[in-house]
Amino acid sequence: MNQADERTRRAVEAVWRIEAPRLIAGLARIVGDIGVAEDLAQDALIAALEQWPDEGVPRSPGAWLMAVGKRRAVDLIRRDRTYARKLALVGRDLDADESESGLGIEPDAIEDDLLGLVFTACHPVLAPQARVALTLRLLGGLTTVQIARAYLVPEATIAQRIVRAKRLLTQQRVPFEVPAGAQLAERLPSVLEVVYLIFNEGYSATAGDDWMRPALCEDALRLARVLAGLMPAEPEVHGLAALLEIQSSRVAARGGAGGGVVLLADQDRGRWNRLMIRRGFAALAKADALAKARGRAPGPYLLQAAIAASHARALTTQDTDWAVIARLYDALIVLLPSPVVALNRAVVVGMARGPAAGLALVDELAGSGELKDYHLLPAVRADLLARLGRYGEARTELEYAAPLARNAAERALLLERAAALPR
């Protein structure tokens, strides 16, 4: 392959990463099937790889890919009578694509198609793991290999999840559409949860040798920004964007030499990304204003963004307004009564009201048995015990926590903390 061909190949890959979600979304609206739409989009990509080296990259590469995809859709429709009624629509769109402007797609239509793709990929009929894989594939532009590597599972497993997800959407006749009214409110949490799950796996990897997978954080943040642009009137969408912006600002400070873990209290806050923090504050202000304008109480993502913002405002751990964060957690636990949120609240209560108060909450959680295999429960208990001077008990808790951790970096940190405690 000569240099010109290599440059063209890189250009095709760059265009594909940007345009693939819009392309698949537009084609899915026409054929009504995400799996078929992805196949048509892949056909358009192959055509670009074949033609652009000779003809050059077109002035509007996204419109070129869409026109090719729609022509493939016409061929499909002609072969399948069930799609016959859509032929006239495709023909009109093709005429528009070939107009003098070369664009042929209204921005509002693109946004509607992208929203339809988001809500279809994150449909509650799919299991959460399938939603995550399909969203990363269709909206994140990741390959099956990249998704498998990020989640430390075999490529075949991810491929099966994606294939089964697309098949289930077809079998269940899930419509390619943006739900309205009550249905939108009911399904939006599923969409936000998927983006949040992707970010969390990048921010604190559940297993493997790496403490973080920043590429996943970047993908989730990009998706959150897209959602904020597509749904500008939804407070929780901006709340999620604010949360991920602020959390992403810490990524560079969370890793030490050799990939070790640097906890919040030990981070060099001068390494926090101030631009991301400012973006997060702006998104949080917008979310708060929208919620108040609608007469709504803050939702879970808005509350979590407010908690992250409180940390971001403090120059040191000692400067943190723990009382404010404790009140935010008091509100959050009502909306998200999960044991993990309860454990995080116990940490904050321990900072705001003293380690004994925090320990009482942790012991209550431990007694429930809900987090019996969760390594952070004994890790948090150890920290509170150490602050009370009960070092022997703290060491025991850390040594118990270490083998429960599936992430190698976290496991190493827990053992280091145990060894460092006074004897």
From TrEMBL:
Ranges where the DUF6596 domain occurs: 187-287
Any one Gene Ontology BP term: response to stress
First and last residue of the signal peptide: none
InterPro entries named among the record's database cross-references: DUF6596, RNA_pol_sigma70_ECF_CS, RNA_pol_sigma70_r2, RNA_pol_sigma70_r4_t2, RNA_pol_sigma_r2, RNA_pol_sigma_r3/r4-like, WH-like_DNA-bd_sf
Gene3D superfamilies (alphabetical): 1.10.1740.10, Winged helix-like DNA-binding domain superfamily/Winged helix DNA-binding domain (1.10.10.10)
Record-annotated RNA polymerase sigma factor 70 region 4 type domain positions: 120-169
UniProt similarity note: Belongs to the sigma-70 factor family. ECF subfamily.
Protein's name in the database: RNA polymerase sigma factor
Phylogenetic classification of the source organism: Bacteria, Bacillati, Actinomycetota, Actinomycetes, Catenulisporales
